[in-house]
User: What shape does this take?
Amino acid sequence: MNDAFYERIHAELRDIDAKGLTKPERVLMSAQGPLVEIAGSPRPVINLCANNYLGLANDPRVVEASIEATRKWGAGLASVRFICGTQDIHKQLEASIAAYLGFEDAILFAAAFDANGGIFEPLLGEQDAIISDSLNHASIIDGVRLCKAKRYRFANNDMNELESLLKQARSDGARTIMIATDGVFSMDGTIANLGAITALAQRYDALTLIDDCHATGFLGPGGRGSAAFRGVEGKIDIITGTFGKALGGAMGGFIVARKAVVDLLRQRARPYLFSNALTPAVCGASLAAIDIAKSEDGEQRRARIVGNAKRFRATMTAAGFDLLPGEHPIIPVMLGDAPKAQRMAAALLKAGVLASGFSFPVVPVGKARIRTQMSAALTPDQVDEAARIFTDVGREIGVIS
Ligand SMILES: *Cc1c(COP(=O)(O)O)cnc(C)c1O
Assistant: This one.
């Protein structure tokens, strides 16, 4: 027992709270969906903050596939993949996601966080360079930290700075240069400028890696993600992604790449080598979700996401809200200061909408916001109802007049 240590922890918690930065966890009493029951809320609320883009998290086909997989393959493997933790369902899921995204091979991880944490170190060493977007996900930042390659960072989506860093890395003598970017930046909903990025990669003989967690399954033709959206499929070397968002929403990460890259990752990626195999339930759910994403039903779901996003944007803009422009179902409602965003989120919940307020350090100081996310599971009526509640609450709090 070290009293000073526990005092320090308490002080840190008090400090987080005093700054209004404590992130409470709301307890759902129901499955994930367009309406959720929340402990302490008198009635179900409209959910605008899940990454359940295709609305498959509680889809009966996905749930059934997950149950079936558990019946057939058991609860889990009690092993990492290379000892005795590989079942045919893991191979099926790797083949399915690789084929869907048009890559030679795929490798599974417990989470996309692990995929990003494990990818850089085996592929790049001291003689190499990673050029990373400043708004990249925390897991890319951590993965880059674990790797010995020289690091370069460009301002979000700044293609001029990216080019000057490519020149810099070349003149610094880099053996291999890898550009790493989120396909979609989750706080703003902006889609990476992959046309320019792949053109620059070609000019400077660099590799490209994108983290497509907020795109796989629903963005671009066939839902094949931000590369498809930008028309540069086939020009990306490596994509990392998740089964925990649009593709069923269970959990689990993956990397798709050329076979040799995947082969090396199976030998060297530490979160793969030293962590349990994905549970069969997750594999079954994810396989079913990929099948739906590729189907006519998936096409209709993607159309509903786009329709809901247009509808919400139009109504909210007409009501006087300040939205970040964009083409993604992430629609940030800008509020400016952090306490206002918190008050707004709390009042929205009381009035029947679940949405999350984000403030510093997740977004820049003075750019606090409520991030809303559209889903194929929301009906147009629910979208309208959510906008109406936003409008009422926004007037009450003085965000709009
Ligand atoms: C959600 C997310 C992750 C983490 O995915 P998990 O599978 O939940 O670990 C990584 N990168 C980005 C860009 C994400 O949005």
Notes: The chain has a mean pLDDT of 96. The pocket of pyridoxal-5'-phosphate is lined by residues 111-113, 116, 137, 139, 182, 186, 211, 213-214, 242, 244, 253 (CB under 6 Å). The first helix runs from residue 3 to 18. The CA atoms of residues 186 and 214 lie 7 Å apart.
